[in-house]
Design brief:
Keywords: Leucine-rich repeat, Repeat. The chain has 227 residues and is an alpha/beta fold. The protein is built from four helices and seven strands, in the order ααβαββββαββ. Helices cover 17% and strands 8% of the residues.
């Protein structure tokens, strides 16, 4: 039994058309697509899909260079790159290429992108980061965000609180960890607040008196007094 290709299969790597004349400004775009048009010629050859190259418009190196200069990611202060549908390795690499250029971004949304590891990315000015609905399993997989104030990690797969203390010396004020396995850890809120003394809000709830860990008295029961 052989699977037949769908009618649209031959068009899956076709790029979007450039609209030359329009009044839309960059700050009016929500969740702009940053995916490349398709894999390289060499990658298509090894996939056995070289025939699709004939249907793709080949951009010259000069055109590619001009487009990258027009992107101007370095001066972007607020950006939403959610829902990118990064279904292939070349899409992920292009996505990370753009993240590396966000040296001035202060607010960044990367919701639902199937991201697993951004530890090689540094966002020196980022104050607000939303990476909800991704596939992070550890705090160590997050980008370097030394100025972070508001961090949202809801609906990932973070198992433990290991590595959370890395944010101890940041100005982090609010943290959202809803719907992560670590949320069910015993004394969850106390452990988070003890690791992050400057934190004010966890999962949308302000710090409460009972969130402050009491002194651990277990050791006193094992001591004896010698007179």
């Amino acid at each position: 039994f052989a699977f037949s290709k769908l009618p649209s299969d031959s068009f899956k790597y076709l790029g979007w058309c450039d609209v030359e004349e329009h009044d839309v400004q960059g700050n009016q775009l929500h969740c702009p697509r940053v995916r490349e048009a398709g894999p390289s010629e060499e990658e298509l050859f090894f996939r056995g899909e070289a025939h699709t190259m004939k249907k793709r418009k080949q951009a010259t190196d000069t055109e590619k260079r001009q487009k990258k200069l027009q992107e101007n990611w370095e001066n972007c202060a607020e950006l939403n790159l959610s829902f990118q549908d990064l279904g292939d390795l070349y899409q992920v690499e292009n996505f990370k290429r753009i993240l590396r250029r966000l040296i001035r971004v202060e607010k960044l949304w990367l919701v639902d992108n199937s991201l697993t590891d951004l530890s090689a990315i540094r966002l020196p000015r980022c104050r607000e980061l939303n990476v909800n609905k991704n596939h992070f399993t550890s705090f160590k997989q997050l980008p370097k965000i030394p100025q972070i104030q508001h961090l949202s990690l809801a609906e990932n797969n973070i198992m433990t609180l290991s590595g959370i203390s890395d944010f101890r010396h940041t100005p982090l004020e609010s943290l959202i960890l809803k719907r992560n396995p670590c949320e069910f850890q015993e004394r969850y809120r106390q452990l988070v607040f003890s690791s992050l003394p400057n934190l004010k809000t966890l999962d949308g709830i302000p710090k409460l008196p009972e969130d402050c860990s009491p002194p651990d008295t277990r050791f006193f029961f094992k001591m004896c007094t010698i007179l």
